[in-house]
Amino acid sequence: MSELLNFNYPPEPAVDRVTLFADVILPLPLPKLYTYRIPFEMNDDVMVGARVIVQFGSKRILSCIVADIHEQAPADYQAKYIMDVLDDTPIVTVPQLKLFKWIADYYMCTLGEVINAALPSALKLSSESRIQLHPHFNPEEDDIPLATQEVKIIYALQQNQAMTFTDIGNLLQIKSYHKFIKSLIQKEAIIIYEQVSDKFSPKVVKKIRLSEHFVQGEGMLEELFEQLTPKPKQLDILLNYLQKVPVHQDVNLNYKGIEKSVLTNNPHLSKSSIDSLIKKGVLEQFDQIISRFPVDDSPRQLPMNLSEHQLQAKDEILGLFKEKDTVLLHGVTGSGKTEVYIDLIKHALEGGGQVLYLLPEIALTAQIVTRLMKVFGEKLGVYHSKFSDNERAEVWQGVLSGRFQVVVGVRSAVFLPFHNLSLIIVDEEHESSYKQYDPAPRYNARETALMMAHLQGAKTLLGSATPSIETYYNCKTGRWGLVTMLKRFGEAQLPDVELVNTREEQQRKTMHSHFSSKLLDGIEQRLKRHEQVILFQNRRGYAPFIACDECSWIPKCRNCAVSLSYHKFGNELRCHYCGYHEHMPSDCPACGATTLKSMGFGTEKIEDELKLILPDAEVQRMDLDTTKKKNSYQQIIADFENGKTNVLVGTQMVTKGLDFENVSLVGILNADSIIHFPDYRAHERAYQLFVQVSGRAGRKGKPGTVFIQTRDPMQAIFRKVISNDYESLYEHEIEERMRFSYPPFVRMIKVTVKHADERTSENAAIVLAKDLTDKLGKQQVLGPEIPYIFRIRNLFLNEIHIKLPRENVNLRSAKGLIAQAIQQLYLLPDFKGIKVVADVDPM
């Protein structure tokens, strides 16, 4: 669809009729909704939740979502007309709009930012400036002096009809091509317009079938055989088709036909003969729209029978749901929480509702989806960022139509258009992966799911072996229900946890690189018994940094205040914050020495060294670098499940909910780096990581062992991990947080001031902190302070932490005062170019 920018509807005749207006959510960070006039002939077509096309400003054409329809014209500007309606039915539901508004209000962002995050790209419309020849310009007759580059543009437009700015740049192969476009506009040789195109396209396959008269007419098929007998290649194709589509048994089978690729991919059949049969009319070729998520026709498996403990947990959950909307299932690793989830999903579907099953990592969906697909089949949809735009759009439409009654997804799945939601399951609810950091909205999917359930009258089940302190507090105070599962499923026992003192081993010189003798002996024993091992190292790459042995030079990121990590694969140095990378130098740029050494270790180095130490072992790595492709997670997990991999080395991805029955040993390589971190959640997170990764060992009745390598085995947290004593951790943490005013006793908002100039960032933060202190009080505002990593993407950072008591504080009013202070800072002339980010409930 193309529209010139001077588009306008003709004046409407003066008759008595209702003039309607629509408030729309534009995909822009605007603080307010914008109002457009609905042309009379579209009065019945424009609906709340549907997409419409509008012109915003003098040049931009955008698609947006209708939020409200009314008869009140805007007081401050003349409303433009809506240009077109894209949807026959709304693609965003009313409960969704309420949720989006809550997200914008709670997380201090705009509705436009929420819509941008919520809608799959394929459901948003692209708009870009395009160039075409002026309708009145005739290159053959108009005598206009043109530069050589302008002639190239005119000739290209004659061939292509329309081109983008990028196309022109590629054509001329120069940077300063805009001046030639401007010149041609002034000479009235070209015009610029906006093209808006719907990105979503259904998946289409080419199919073939026999022409109808060959299967309907009596004796026609026999006659066809006689005709093709002299042409054996074409006869082979016909026989092959009839073998796959036995029309002699049922002529109706021919209507569906088969995919053309079934024949063209057969090396024994001639592709040219297939095309010849199509040209002769023997075969018909047609397009068919198919789902990107084909229906699994294999027999459904019934959910496995629950054990006595699982059945008791399920009954307790359903009992608590009669009184409370939210329940925590606190089950030790391997207790069989997933089977309880499946039974509860089945119960919800029998009641006619929809279910959302949230997971913190894409890696987890690979295992869970396989299990759920066997039970729920075509009712199951999957939603995460590794899917293409069109695949995500198809899931969106499938949820809207009711095709998908169960959806498994990561945090973005909370945006899906559920309309009959009855149950939300948030597995591994403690995980920080549920929090979105950048860009806005900086939402937490767990909290958003709770609000989503509230708006739709659904129940929420949170599950974890190591709940967040805030969640457990809500259970202890009676706000939420609590169900515990303290035994592993079947004959399985919790693994034995053993601390390995790496300081002592280094003194005895029994360390082999980063592996203690105990850990290496343990790995070798498991490999001899054909058992599997998981090794956890909470840092990817080969080494955190490199350094010159002579002058101590360390390569730094040119955009961020961090050292560059060394990645051996690709032989390059990378910044894990902005993505900057450069080739690994052969000598020191500072002193010229060739003694560059890698310092520390990451997953890549562990994998590399283990292959040298244990050459017969099959070692695989699972981290951000090895899982960039769409199906990488599934392949790595499948290889490990099938026994192709003996040792799996990974980052936090290997700690979360994965279930491998042959894993009998887990090694945590550098526990101290996780514990000693400047954050009030450091001990909570360390405990969660250690217990979660330890829980991968000893499934299915096989005894498990965990080795934790540390230089200080006397740290108190290790005793809690060894005894699996969550209650002790909770009591200690809740007491500390009460004493020093941290969540759950206060709400926290982190305000980050960013600017390219260090002094400007610092001064702006000081001014903002003073204003916030005046508005909120001295006790509520901490800072500003310079964070540990003080520069990211060439912007200097200063942070202000705001603590708002949960009692006697109007949260909406407080957030309004914070937003007001930020807006006032933007208006000060000394702070042009400043950027301020408010992060509600930072993790």
Automatic annotation (TrEMBL):
SMART domains: DEXDc (SM00487), HELICc (SM00490). GO terms for biological process: DNA recombination; DNA replication initiation; DNA replication, synthesis of primer; double-strand break repair. Residues 522-742 form the Helicase C-terminal domain. It is an enzyme of class 5 (isomerase). Keywords: ATP-binding, DNA replication, DNA-binding, Helicase, Hydrolase, Isomerase, Metal-binding, Nucleotide-binding, Primosome, Zinc. One of its GO terms (cellular component) is primosome complex. It catalyses: ATP + H2O = ADP + phosphate + H(+); Couples ATP hydrolysis with the unwinding of duplex DNA by translocating in the 3'-5' direction. CDD domains: DEXHc_priA, SF2_C_priA. One of its GO terms (molecular function) is 3'-5' DNA helicase activity. Binds 2 zinc ions per subunit. Zn(2+) 2 binds at C557, C560, C575, C578. Pfam families: DEAD, Helicase_C, PriA_3primeBD, PriA_C, Zn_ribbon_PriA. The keyword Nucleus does not apply. Its EC number is 5.6.2.4. Gene3D superfamilies: P-loop containing nucleotide triphosphate hydrolases (3.40.50.300), PriA, 3(prime) DNA-binding domain (3.40.1440.60). The keyword RNA-binding does not apply. Zn(2+) 1 binds at C548, C551, C588, C591. Belongs to the helicase family. PriA subfamily. Initiates the restart of stalled replication forks, which reloads the replicative helicase on sites other than the origin of replication. Recognizes and binds to abandoned replication forks and remodels them to uncover a helicase loading site. Promotes assembly of the primosome at these replication forks. Component of the replication restart primosome. This is Replication restart protein PriA. It comes from Pontibacter fetidus. The gene is priA.
